[in-house]
Design brief:
mainly beta, about 240 residues
């Protein structure tokens, strides 16, 4: 009988079955094709299409013509199905100037060969802040495809500026060239305004009298104006009371 061992040069890309073939002596099997199956292996990394070899060991047999006979190896290619990328989820809603928060999730689409760090920043910290300042996804572990949450918090500016959109800016860095500098979608969030133009007039402190007693009251604006606000004051009856300023 002639036996040939079979193995893969890279079991991370492909496996081979069976592990050996045997061709019988003096029967009808020696010239019958025997099938060898090569199965691709998923590695979750964006490593491109990778070639590897099905190593055919030297034949072993008690027949000296076959024993030690070199057998040609076979080259196979495992086509990659992974693409480096970042999945950014939808923002959960608006923030507001009362400090309401909104969140979104981030994860990778393939296992990187080096840790991936994504810096996060707000395009307008006067409208919204972001936490954490960076996300890190590990290489070769179970964290690369696990959602990590990002929280955006609305900032109060006291101005009547309406609902203002700001952008959470993301940037990736890694020793993995597929991820280093990879463009990551930014996230737009709207900070709802809670300011309304108005004037609050306080209660008068009491009555005046004809002996010259005074009374006071206070005024203030309800929101920060974009320009100076002047309020004119006058008495409806200067014969009974005057006002200052």
């Amino acid at each position: 009988d002639v036996t040939m061992a079979l193995s893969s040069s890279d079991t991370g890309e492909g496996t081979v079955s069976p592990a050996a073939l045997t061709f019988g002596s003096g029967d009808s099997t020696w010239n019958v094709d025997q099938a060898v199956t090569v199965t691709g292996v998923d590695d979750n990394s964006d490593d491109g299409d990778v070639a590897y070899t099905i190593v055919t060991g030297a034949a072993s047999s008690s027949d000296g013509n076959y024993n030690g006979l070199a057998v040609a190896d076979v080259t196979a290619t495992n086509d990659d199905d992974d693409t480096a990328g970042v999945t950014v989820g939808a923002i959960s809603g608006d923030t507001d100037e009362g400090g309401a928060t909104a969140t979104f999730n981030v994860r990778l689409t393939s296992d990187p060969t080096g840790d991936v760090t994504m810096a996060l920043s707000s395009s307008d910290t006067g409208e919204g802040t972001v936490s954490p300042a960076a996300l890190t996804f590990g290489s070769g572990d179970s964290t690369w495809n696990v959602d990590q949450a990002v929280t955006v918090t609305g900032v109060d500016d006291n101005s009547i500026d309406g609902d203002v959109a700001c952008t959470i800016v993301t940037a990736a860095s890694s020793s993995d060239g597929n991820y280093n500098g990879l463009a990551v979608p930014d996230v737009t969030v709207t900070n709802d305004d809670d300011d309304t133009a108005g004037i609050t007039v306080g209660a008068i402190s009491g009555d005046t009298d004809e002996g010259g007693a005074t009374a006071t009251f206070n005024l203030r604006l309800n929101a920060d104006p974009s320009h100076v606000v002047t309020i004119a004051l006058s008495s409806s009856d200067a014969g009974e009371g005057t006002v200052s300023p």
